[in-house]
Amino acid sequence: MSPLNVGIVGTGIFATDTHLPTFSKIPDIKPVACYNRTKAKAETFATKASIPQEQVYDSLESIFEAKDVDFIDALLPVQFNLDAVKLAVKNKKPIALEKPIAANMEQARSIVNLSRETDLPIAILENWSYRKSIDILKKEIIPKIGEVVSFTYKSTGPWNDNNKYLATSWRQKPEHIGGFLSDGGVHQLALLTDVLGPVESVSGLTKQLRKESGTDDVLFSTFKLASGVIGTFTYGSSFGATEKSTSFIIYGLEGSLTYDFSPHLAKPTITYQTGAGSASASEPIVVEVDEANTFVAEFENFVSAVKSGNKGDVHVKPENAFHHLAIVAAALESSAKGGDNVKVETI
Length: 347
Ligand SMILES: NC(=O)c1ccc[n+]([C@@H]2O[C@H](COP(=O)([O-])OP(=O)(O)OC[C@H]3O[C@@H](n4cnc5c(N)ncnc54)[C@H](OP(=O)(O)O)[C@@H]3O)[C@@H](O)[C@H]2O)c1
Description:
GO terms for molecular function: nucleotide binding; oxidoreductase activity. By secondary structure, this protein is α/β, with parallel strands linked by helices. It is built from eleven helices and 15 strands. It has helices at about 15-25, 40-50, 60-65, 80-90, 105-115, 130-140, 170, 180-185, 185-195, 295-310, 320-335; strands spanning about 5-10, 30-35, 55, 70-75, 95-100, 120-125, 150-160, 200-205, 220-225, 230-240, 245-250, 255-260, 270-275, 285-290, 340-345. The model has no long low-confidence stretch (mean pLDDT about 95).
């Protein structure tokens, strides 16, 4: 079968630095068209992607109407995701959208409703759901540590003035709730909920540490999951000098595990111990994970859904991404209420 023709909308940093190299690794995808608000940037992108200059479109509407475009890859400031989905449905184009699903819960709900009324595959590119570690944790390690009772998830890092994403104006004055907390937080929450299941309620406190973040940029919180499991979730990269680290500790009645995928590690590790207590504790066992290229994996998944024409084949659907943004929304609401426990909105 010939490759699927993709039209890229929003040819900014991530389209250029990550999606384009990803497409070059997938024979089933061929970039054929692009659009960007500032056209010169789309022209530069087209040259890099070997897209003919006449396939650089002048409006968002017109690229969605293009007959030779099989699906759209949208990398817009997320307040425009709903507009893009409306155009996708109107023009019957499958669409992959960058995360978070939308700028707020109202828009996220509209996207979920539109996705339910159409047969088109619609994917949210939260990316971390494609980590191999998720299956290893769920199928191989968690069964060894008995009934899961709680967790501690922590992803923290130092403020970085040279963060290239910081320079984007839509992040400096975020219309999306939570600013960096939803921008990066939904990746973490996709991973957490893929492993342990949905979150029922949140008590949290947020704070703005850096004016450049445009809004609150650190979150300290407690979650109650639908399963009854309780835990803590700490997130932020606005601190003073500290080693960037991400660790997910899961406590069971017959052991515990630590999934550490901090950037300083050569490979992510899962370290676990079994035993009902200190007297019967095993030695720690360390499993190194050969992680997948999660960007390739998510586009391979989307392409397979487009080819099958079955929207059910999409791994991260709008409903999943709605939940992840809803957790951030609940944390923000909780913080505004001084840390009160807030139920996570359901679709
Ligand atoms: N999955 C991940 O790990 C990951 C990582 C980074 C980013 N992302 C996502 O990728 C998307 C793009 O992020 P980025 O970092 O690449 O940002 P970016 O460089 O600012 O790219 C956004 C693009 O959208 C265009 N745009 C801005 N306002 C617009 C408007 N009103 N109408 C139409 N187009 C508009 C911009 O065009 P101009 O050239 O005119 O400004 C720009 O080229 C975001 O959704 C972000 O959340 C995902």
